Structures are given as structure tokens and as C-alpha cells.
Amino acid sequence: MNVFRLAGDMTHLLSIIVLLLKIRTTKSCAGISLKTQELYVIVFLARYLDLLTKYFSVYNTVMKLVFIGSSISIVWYMRYHKVVKQTYNKDQDTFRHYVLTLPCLVLALLIHRDFTVIEVLWTFSLYLEAVAIFPQLVLLQRSRNIDNLTGNYVFLLGAYRALYLLNWIYRFFMEEKHLVRWIPWVSGIVQTALYADFFYYYIKSWKNHEKFRLPS
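The structure corresponding to this sequence follows.
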């Protein structure tokens, strides 16, 4: 494991910690898209189905279980916690996330590495993760008040994917027998590109000490 892979994993984990910290300490999920969180539950369940068939390492297993468990916990808080659910911006979180799921599944059935259940679901999870942030970005554009924890959460999510791209580039040049896997590469580039506008305004607001907002 190289430094970019480890940094990507830790950044991803930190993003979840920041979100759970926001929800548990403030008893609020304002500014967080339930649609995006539900898509991440689907992503992790589809991607980590190999937990039932393969063992790689303690680190790998623990990280997979953490991502599955934390994503389900976040959705539970937003849907069922008697205080947190009252702060959910349901009237603004209106992006039809199911519109993203079916095309990603069809694409995975058409373009995959091997036509097996685990491989197709793994490919589907990559395609879906690439666009899962869409409802969240739409919600942020509609929100007048974006708190620091929400902004930091989304920034860390984008940084995690950017670090994974650096990990793949590093492996391409440093590992003699490393094979280019175009599906995660292209999906990762698309996902990172979706964050470009967010990164620009996030860094701009941080540099100018201004309140963070996305243009409508």
C-alpha cells in the first residue's frame, strides 16, 4: 500500500467521522442529502459483497465493515432519529436519485471486466459512486446556509477520490506488473470532475475568509 492509497482511505474515513460528528453533536442533518447517503449504502453493499467470498487482510475487512456500518447508521439517523430527522431538508433534497441507479446498473451489465455477480456489482458500485454526490451538490446549491462541517465533509469526500487517482497514477509508473483498470480510472475521473466547481468555491471562500456558498 502506497502513501496515496493510505491517505485516500484515511480521508474517506475522516469524511464519515466529520459527518457523524455533525449529526451526533448538533443533532442536525441540515444540509446533508439523504438521497446521496442512500446511494452510498447501495455502493458499499454492492462493492463489498466479496466479504462473503474472499479474505485479503484485517485492514481491508475492517475498513469495508466500517464503511458499510457507518453509511447505514447515517441513513438511520436521518430517517428515524426523533430529533435529527426533523432537521432534514426534505423540501430541498428533491433530486430523483433512482434516476442514477438504473443507468449505472445497465452500464455495468454492458461494460464490465468479468460477467459474474460480484464483478458486475463491483463495476456497478464504481459507476454509481461516481455520480452519487450529485444530489448532495444540488442540495448545497439550493441551501442558503452551508455550515462548516457540511462543507468539510463534502471537501473530504472529493479529496479522497482525488487521492485515489494519484494512487493509480503512482502504481502505473512504479509497479512493473501493474495493469491499468479503465473502469475505476474513468469512473474516478468523472467523480473528481464533479467536485471541480465545489473545490473552486470552497478554496476561494477559505482563502478569502468568507462564508462558503455555491452559486445557484
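The chain has nine helices and no strands.
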